[in-house]
Design goal:
The structure holds two protein chains of two kinds. Helix content of chain A is 8%, strand content 48%. By secondary structure, chain A is mainly beta. In chain B, helix 6 runs parallel beside helix 8 and helix 10 runs parallel beside helix 11. The chains are: A mainly beta, B alpha/beta.
């Protein structure tokens, strides 16, 4: 008997077995047995809804070449070093897949994806990024769920790319080429594009514009244009909050305020101390502009030099440099609390990212 | 890395043997992955009563010895958790559950490591059915088996202290249920031989599987994350089918442990065709083939295709001069009568190996959404998992090659 006949023979055997066992199950199901009869009916496989399991509130900050994770443990905030490999990390994103928290960190020529619960790291090599000095992934985002999760990233030399994280299933390192580039880089390298992924789609800042696309990531439509370059922005319930060159903060196309310190590196809309406001962070200060009045409330206090921060829900995380000790401190501001955590890393702090994030 | 918890239902031969093999096999990876082993207290008045059993004490000693051999700072504890009214405590506290339970078999007696049937018992009927004898269940009386059960499960004796025995009414229900399923399976078996396990084991475990399935359907709503559930209850694929049909949410996490069949098949295959391998120039090459179907004599299908596609030409060269249908029939016969070829210690060790590999791959995959485990194709697993029908959403648990991803089964292409 040839091999192909052999395969046919075994296939017939399998069908015979399958039919027999199916018949057995059918007989069991139709019998009058009180416990089995109505039950063995092979209902459709209903997947348990695990989509919206809330992960713990976490904050990640990159200080120099180190990455720290700040998370609540037994009622206190705990800082742990999660540095994967010593690169200069310029962008971070925290996200969850099937209840597992991950941190993506972008550097000059790649992105590392760290499983925060297990000993596991994955790496995206971006060959087209080259090894340019002082240029790195400026922003990361995530869209989709489960194995359909897409990592979004923007790099001044590469542009906007997406990486399907399912590619990690068979390989710990995936290499990205030009086919993954969805949007070319800005012509002015110093203006770094930013990404915000939401349930309504993905928003990207590109020079003076904010672009929007749906989950298919095509096409990118300009939805807002500003008179100056966009430094940073936030999107909440389709409302865009934006900080531009010159220190002007916008709500959609309406000018909200002008900051005293013009360089803005973070704008976030949320509820701060029970009041709706827009958190923004200038070069040496962070503050909240309350939308119910024209009041700007500073968040950081001298002699601390605010270098990065974000605001989420009722909590703000502000990373500051103590000018006296030359060490960094992470200030966590809740409604009625102010906790200061020393961060060991030295060097220029580049980014901080986090929040009470849900399954993506 | 967060260390996990292993839950165990049952404390019979399979469980004892699994932990006894710690003395001869390297269980370091097990100790690195697990921080706790929990036994489910399914039938003792208190946890302390369970802990006083010989089986629990033996496992406790083995685990203590393993933990100390791996390192002073390695903490691995054994404890008892949950009860029939608090199954959720056990379920929610475990990352991987091994179900090695078995229903009471009326009339089955153990004599010198072999099972015998007491004349006039339900088990004797099952044995006769398995031999193809035309017998009728009429004349059998559950009361005679119950009398024997009471003698065997007297909880006033030291051996069964603290045990909650079935009352007469529960015993009668269990007996009647087993008889009914036995007769149904036998009807099908007469037309197409299925095998011994579906007659000698499954009917006696079916009602506790149904009960467990109902429990699972309740507790999946309360648990934060669902555990991987590995069943070795005979027949494992049918056991998983019953559990999965009652608790559909568990289907992706359910595994019927049958990996020992393919291990036996590969040993027999490489032993038997040693000369053919040498003639083709592959004396030291280990041929690995696959298994399909169920873990029972008539429905166990050796697949004489290589585990790895690249080995196809080697397999073709080795088998060049052999008649395929004879080869297939020989291997099928040999693998289903493995107990004639190997001693009990070897076959038990094969079961422990298959369990160890499955438990380890399952636990290593948990918390990892973007990895398939085990990683190497050569160390892939062969177990029963849910095969969905092509034309609808229904299906059955059948043996096949698979891996794990975040505690869920992923079929190998």
């Amino acid at each position: 008997m040839s091999n192909s006949n052999g395969v046919e023979f075994m296939t017939q055997e399998l069908f015979r077995v399958g039919n027999t066992m199916r018949e057995l199950v059918g007989t069991l199901a139709s019998a009058s047995h009180p416990s089995l009869s109505s039950k063995i009916d092979f209902p459709s496989v209903v997947q348990r809804d695990e989509t919206y399991i809330t992960l713990d509130m976490m904050c990640a900050c990159a200080a120099g070449k180190e990455i720290y994770l700040v998370e609540p443990k037994k009622g206190a905030w705990e800082v742990r070093d999660v540095t994967p490999r010593r690169h200069r990390y310029r962008s971070l994103a925290l996200f969850g897949v099937e209840s597992v928290p991950y941190l993506a960190a972008g550097y000059s020529s790649g992105i590392v994806v760290i499983n925060l619960r297990e000993r596991e790291q994955k790496k995206v090599n971006v060959e087209i990024a080259g090894r340019a000095e002082n240029v790195a992934f400026s922003s990361l985002g995530v869209i989709g769920s489960g194995l359909d999760t897409l990592l979004l990233a923007v790099h001044p030399l590469v542009g906007f790319i997406n990486v399907p994280l399912a590619r990690f299933l068979h390989d710990d390192v995936v290499t990205v080429n030009r086919s993954n580039v969805l949007l070319p880089p800005s012509t002015e390298r110093k203006w770094l594009s930013q990404i915000r992924s939401t349930t309504e789609g993905v928003y990207v800042s590109h020079e003076r514009d904010i672009l929007h696309t749906d989950a298919s990531l095509r096409p990118f439509d300009p939805i807002l244009s500003f008179p100056a370059m966009v430094c940073c922005f936030d999107v909440k319930e389709r409302e865009v909050y934006c900080g531009t060159e010159g220190g002007i903060v916008y709500h959609n196309s309406t000018r909200l305020c002008r900051t005293a310190h013009p360089v803005i590196s973070a704008v976030q809309a949320g509820v701060y101390e029970g009041r709706e406001g827009v958190f923004f962070q200038g070069k040496k200060r962070s503050a909240v502009y309350f939308t119910d009045g024209d009041k700007i409330m500073p968040v950081s206090k001298s002699p601390l030099d605010t270098v990065a921060g974000f605001h989420m829900g009722t909590t703000s995380f502000v990373l500051e440099k103590n000018l006296t000790s030359d060490h960094y401190e992470l200030t966590i501001l809740g409604n009625e609390s102010r906790i200061v955590i020393p961060v060991q890393g030295k060097g220029r702090v580049l980014t901080v990212y986090g929040g009470d994030f849900n399954e993506c | 890395m967060a260390r996990k918890s292993l839950g165990i239902i049952g404390k019979g031969h399979v469980v004892k043997r699994f932990f006894s093999d710690m003395a001869v096999k390297d269980y370091t990876a097990f100790a690195e992955q697990f921080a706790a082993v929990y036994f489910y207290n399914y039938g003792y008045l208190t946890d302390d009563d369970f802990k006083k059993t010989d089986e629990f004490r033996t496992v406790e000693k083995r685990v203590e010895s393993l933990a100390s051999s791996v390192g002073e700072d390695v903490e691995l504890t054994v404890n008892v958790r949950g009860s029939s009214t608090t199954f959720v405590d056990f379920f929610a506290g475990c990352d991987v559950i091994l179900d090695a339970s078995e229903g009471y078999v009326p009339g089955r007696l153990k004599r010198e490591n072999k099972f015998e049937a007491r004349p006039g018992s339900l088990y004797e009927l099952a044995v006769k059915f398995s031999k193809g004898e035309e017998v009728s269940p009429s004349g059998l009386d559950w009361r005679r088996d119950y009398d024997q059960y009471c003698v065997e499960n007297d909880n006033t004796t030291d051996d069964h202290k603290g045990r909650i025995p079935m009352n007469q009414s529960d015993f009668e229900k269990h007996w009647q249920s087993a008889l009914e399923i036995l007769c149904i399976v036998n009807e099908v078996h007469r037309q197409f031989p299925i095998g011994r396990r579906m007659l000698l084991s499954f009917p006696f475990s079916a009602d506790i599987l149904v009960e467990r399935g109902k429990q699972l359907s309740q507790v999946v709503r309360e648990a934060h994350a669902l555990p991987t559930y590995i069943t070795v209850v005979n027949e494992p694929c049918m056991a998983a089918t019953v559990l999965g049909s009652l608790a559909p949410a568990m289907v992706p996490y359910l595994v019927a442990c049958t990996g020992f069949d393919v291990e036996r098949l590969n040993m027999i295959f490489n032993d038997t065709y040693r000369a053919e391998k040498e003639r083709a120039g592959y004396r030291d090459f280990v041929l690995r083939v696959r298994m399909k179907g169920f873990h029972d004599d008539g429905v166990m299908i050796p697949l004489i295709v290589p585990e790895r596609k690249e080995d196809q030409s080697i397999l073709a060269e080795v088998l060049l001069a052999l008649d395929f249908s004879r080869l297939y029939s020989y291997l099928k016969d040999q693998v289903q009568s493995y107990f004639q070829r190997y001693d009990a210690a070897t076959t038990s060790r094969q079961v422990s190996n298959a369990l160890y590999n499955t438990i380890l791959a399952a636990v290593q995959s948990r918390g990892k959404c973007f990895s398939l485990l085990p990683r190497l194709p050569a160390s892939g697993l062969s177990n029963g998992y849910f095969h969905q029908n092509v034309d609808d959403v229904q299906g059955m648990f059948l043996v096949g090659n698979h891996k794990f991803r975040n505690g869920k089964v992923v079929a190998d292409e």
